[in-house]
Amino acid sequence: MTQTNDLAQRRARRQAVLAGIGDGVAVLATSAEVVRNRDSHYPYRFDSHFHYLSGFAEPEAVLVLHGQSGRSILFCREKDPEREIWDGRRYGPDAAREAFGFDEAWPIAELDRRMPDLLADQSALHVILGDDPVWDRRVLGWLEAVRAQVRNGVSAPSALHDLRKRLDAMRLVKDASELDVMQKAADISALAHQRAMRATRPGMHEYEIEAELLYEFCRHGARSVAYNSIVAGGANACILHYVDNNARLNDGDLLLIDAGCELAGYASDITRTFPVNGRFDAAQRDVYACVLAAQAAALACVKPGASWPDPHDAAVRVLAQGMLDWGLVQGSLDGVIESGAYKRFYMHRTGHWLGMDVHDVGDYRSGGQWQNLVPGMVLTVEPGCYIQAADDVPPAFRNIGIRIEDDVVVTADGHHVLTAGTPKQIVDIEQLMTGQGG
Ligand code: GLY
Ligand code: MN
Ligand code: MN
After folding, report:
1. What is the pLDDT of residues 199-211, one digit of tens each?
2. Structure letter (DSSP) for residue 157
3. Is the domain of 132 the same as that of 177?
């Protein structure tokens, strides 16, 4: 993806919003910096919607799209040589306008003074409210300021629209430049998972494997994780959001790793589960083969025209049959599915949208109808089986937690697995870890 393509893409996205809002005004702020402790901040991450439309990565920035005039206006921090010596370079309005293709750019300090004029006599305000009370108050302040001018013949926007809906729908279907970045992010994460498999030995700690993942992400330019890495040995794999990552890895246990890097604002999200000692035992092999078959059944449903729940329903059927076979649940297959008895061992959905956010925006259901898949949508396919130790669970199956997760783009004739570079067949995993085939 070249910088020029990127600029053109973002301009086209802004044009699409402008065309959609008629003579309304859309206003979108980026994220605030967040203090971690005392005067240290968390690594800065821009707001996804804001970056999708602007490409601008500095904090303290607001984008205004003025429908009537068709102008894209950026408010951002001013140049400040003294601060820049301490905190790093800033574009400043003039350079930002040039570099990112805005029609106008102003210092962020002028936002409150200029907004009432930009909103005067415009039909509607499109904005995101409810995330941040300080921002909400600020937006209402602009509206009050416009209304205060009513005796001068100025009218305030009479409609307030949630800008989320429009942007969520745009982001749900990825364009070629987004898919290009997502493939790169997936490739880096695939390398990291392979590195982790190669490094794992009994007696190591979960954090040592986490370090291998982070090293591989970072050395390919992916400086952040897309979400906190889960490196869960043995029984820890049955805790869905386990992030302590501090336990010892035992011979005979499985290791579940759910980790993905963020690259240029786009997430990847891969889970692999493999034996700490490189060889699956019989029960682990059974459960693993079943989860893999469930994933294959789910993947077969990922194609244009399929309905959102199809992959999940297909995965549940395979997993529930496995649970019956192992004596974890009793009854008929349809009965176990209908009663939800399988949820004791498979309690999450089989996937989610993936994009700039790991659990990306976009409706799953609207107007009472499940979303149909169309080319360009990206989703995860991630069935699992989590068997907590209990008296009614056969001993060989206790504390087995397995998930297999890939990132998938819907194509015109089916799907493409972005994360195919990470081994998941039993024979391939054992080969990679021990140098010997199944
Ligand atoms: N890593 C978060 C998820 O798989 O949904
Ligand atoms: Mn996921
Ligand atoms: Mn995941």
Report:
1. 999 999 999 999 9
2. -
3. no
